[in-house]
Amino acid sequence: MKDFVVAIDLGTSCTAFSWKSIVDPAGPSIGVPDMKPNEDIIGKSPTTLLIAGSTGSDKMFRPTGAEAYGREAQHRYANGDIPHGAQLFKRFKMIYDDLVDAVTKSTSRKAEMMLMDIFVIALEYIKSVALMGMTLTHAVSAEDVTWVLTVPVCCSEPAKHFMREAATKAGFIKGGNDDEGLVLCMEPIAACLALGNRLQWRMRDKYLVIDCGGGTVDISAFEVISSAPPSLEQLGEASGGPWGSTNVDRLFEAYLKDFVLSVAQEAGERSLESFFASSASYRINQAWERAKIGLRSVDHDCRIDLSELSREPLEVTTEEMDEGRRLKNRGGTEFVGGHGTFDLVLRPALLRKFFKEQCKNISGAVSEQLERPHLQGLSAVVMVGGFSGSMHVQEAVRACVARKYPDGSVEVSIPKSPDLAIVEGAAHFVSAPPASGAVGPGGQQLPAAPRFAAVTSANSYGIVVSETGGGVVPAFFDPFFLKGQGYEMNHMVTKNYTIQSDIPFTLSVSSCASPHVHPGCNRLTDIGGLKSLQSQEFSVPPPPPVAEVGCCGMMKPKARTELNKIEITVEFSLIGIELHVRVRSNTGQVMLQQAVPFLRHEGAPPAYGSL
């Protein structure tokens, strides 16, 4: 048996990998191909490759090597920071089940490349980044690793052969028949393993797994046929379709383009083309990516910062923004708000339009699966994939399950980080321990598995909130994790704070090495000061004044009472051996995301934090 396992989730939209020691029961460390030293990135990398090379007269691209992956590749391409002849390829996995000898076009549509060559270059890049991170704490080579590649449940045998051949060419193993060095793991099985003890893993338990990704939504049913190690057998035919988040993104991008055209009517055609091809447009779409998943309710607004429009080459004014809103609302307020600002506030009615078709398709497929005879006695529904983080998708699935099981006997289980669940669970596929209370094929009771725990906090971590420029010295530190205490995998702490929305404030994510920190508020003078890991100033717009109708039908403002006070939610969660921090406003807007690689694993070498 190899000493380490590295799992790779090369998805249509995004990519991530994980690694762990084969004998370590604790959760794996998570990495992404475009992570840089001392840089904290939350979320997977876009499946995008910037490849150097040249294009022949036949339009076939002849690669010489990868220049960049993910966000870095997109930024460099958008800013023109690329070698002569280089091409950008993205979302290339979407077609790999069609023909293993297929070609795919570059983003510019000016070049074509053999799909096998793209996969080999992508896997080589991910392999090198993973090994680089692992060698920070271990002497590791590719031969010391069991490589796990995740594949969708609908993956055909030719496509599996394609993946194994690409991995062999990328240097993962020396021969295509090395079953110890290279393992393919079905994504639904990895999804169930990621939930650990949240699933019972009893013999003959049935799970319906809904994998909501960027390109597709895959729905499949499984039955537990072994608890030691956990093993699943597929029940019936899988279903699904091209209903992933990219379809919602396209609707937003089309809406955004139409909105920009309406507010930048004075800009010339070249200025508009320059903007839509720039990193500014990319940043707006990234803000949308975060915001659509950050909503805590389908009834909340979604706020997108469009201040990029005020700069060159468009130089849009707030007056032009207001006129654009008026046109999009057709005289009402149903779809978009943000008067007098550069914020584009998407109302729930508009968001429902974006999500409607995909949720309808997902609901229909889930309902059809729930009616199949082999799913009678269903134990749980598992939702994974980045699109599962959407409250609209969650609401659609929960409604289907509630209609079928109105007594609440079947729970919908969603991991804390659904976009990372598959790559996290796949790392346990090779050495998956038996679940607590597991029963073997002969009915014998098996020993309980080690719990996903043993992660000890090296310091205390928490926040300090203070007014900006108000002369208020932060007097208290509120810890979420305490130094020296052990925490289970996926442990999460959430706290709410009430702030003045019309006063800018600074939120500081801080650590403290003092052993005297206690739960609750700590005076800074008692604990000897803090180290700020991330400090950011926020200015949250106050909510609009509530208006009521007067006797003549005129709108008259209602006096403000507590409207200038809003609530923010701070979430600290343990993912792998990293501490992740997320701050949301009461509308669900994600105001801050931070990964803190400052936790250590008890009895193990120093934790892998970031590449």
What oligomeric state do these chains adopt? Answer: single chain
Q: Tell me the count of domains.
A: 3
Number of helices: 12
Q: Averaging pLDDT over every residue, what do you get?
A: 78
Head-to-tail CA distance between termini: 26 Å
CATH class of the largest domain: Alpha Beta
Radius of gyration: 25 Å
Keywords: Stress response
Protein name: Heat shock protein 70-putative
Written description of the protein model:
It comes from Ectocarpus siliculosus (Brown alga). InterPro entries: ATPase_NBD. Keywords: Stress response. This is Heat shock protein 70-putative. This protein is an alpha+beta fold. The chain has three domains: 4-183, Nucleotidyltransferase, domain 5, CATH 3.30.420; 196-414, Nucleotidyltransferase, domain 5; 455-601, Sandwich (Substrate Binding Domain Of DNAk, Chain A, domain 1). Helix content is 25%, strand content 31%. Strand 2 and strand 3 form a beta hairpin. Helix 2 packs across helix 3 (157-169), helix 5 crosses helix 8 and helix 9 (348-370) packs parallel to helix 10.
